[in-house]
Amino acid sequence: MNSALDKQVISLLNEQIWLENNASFYYLYLSNQFGENGYNGISKFFLEQSNEEREHMLKIMEYMLDQDSQPLIPNYNFMEDLDEEFDILSHFQNSLYNERQVTESINKIVTKCKEINDVNTENFMQWFVIEQREEETKFKSIIDDLKIIGDSGSGLYELNKQLGTLPTEE
Ligand SMILES: [Fe+2]
Ligand SMILES: [Fe+2]
Predict the structure, then answer these.
(1) Using 50, 70 and 90 to split pLDDT, how confident is the model at 8?
(2) From ligand 1's centre to the CA of 151, what distance in Å?
(3) Ligand nearest to the CA of 53
(4) Residue 122 has pLDDT above 80, yes or no
(5) Residue 80 reports pLDDT greater than 90
(6) Chain centre distance of CA 104
């Protein structure tokens, strides 16, 4: 029989749900931005990122429900406050910054779990720890490529094509 989670863990998991939801909306926003500017491959890449972030949110909700704890459904997204000028490099840099904040939040949950000896949640969060390492590496390597590409049209053409044909993650 599952028991309810610790109060502090519940509130940290709800914060995590909030962050995953924000990330999902942010990447959806970027998908539209790139689409509007004709980068259909990069647009597709960010749509896929957005869907993944939503999956992360749902994963945490499912875990909380399994543990007889109530997840909070985010009722607000910060998109209304967002006004970023279209800039390919800075969109990716902001994405990496966003991923690092998510990683920090996940580490906070793991630390709390260790402190109160919540082995289940700690174990559940390991998937996210690995996922975040992959996400950060992915964005970092695209940023590295963009720095090499600079203003080269053919470089951007290639990157757009490459990101549009990345295999879908499972
Ligand atoms: Fe995520
Ligand atoms: Fe992510």
Answers:
(1) very high
(2) 30
(3) 1
(4) yes
(5) no
(6) 12
91-105: pLDDT as tens digits:
999 999 999 999 999
CA of 81 to the centre of ligand 2 (A): 21
Distance CA 129, CA 167 (A): 21
Token pair 């959806």 is found at 28
- SS3 of residue 151 by DSSP: coil
Looking at the CA of 26, name the nearest ligand. Answer: 2
pLDDT band at 3 (very low <50, low <70, confident <90, very high): low
C-alpha to C-alpha distance for 52 and 132, rounded to whole angstroms: 12
CB atoms within 10 A of CB 22: 20
CA–chain centroid gap for 124, Å, is: 17
Q: Which fold has domain 7-164?
A: Ferritin (1.20.1260)
C-beta contacts of 108-113 below 8 A and 24+ residues apart: 108/12, 109/9, 109/12, 109/13, 109/16, 112/8, 112/9, 112/12, 113/9
Q: Is the pLDDT of residue 109 over 90?
A: yes
Count how many residues are written for the chain: 170
Whether residue 120 contacts residue 67, with contact meaning beta carbons closer than 8 Å, is answered with yes
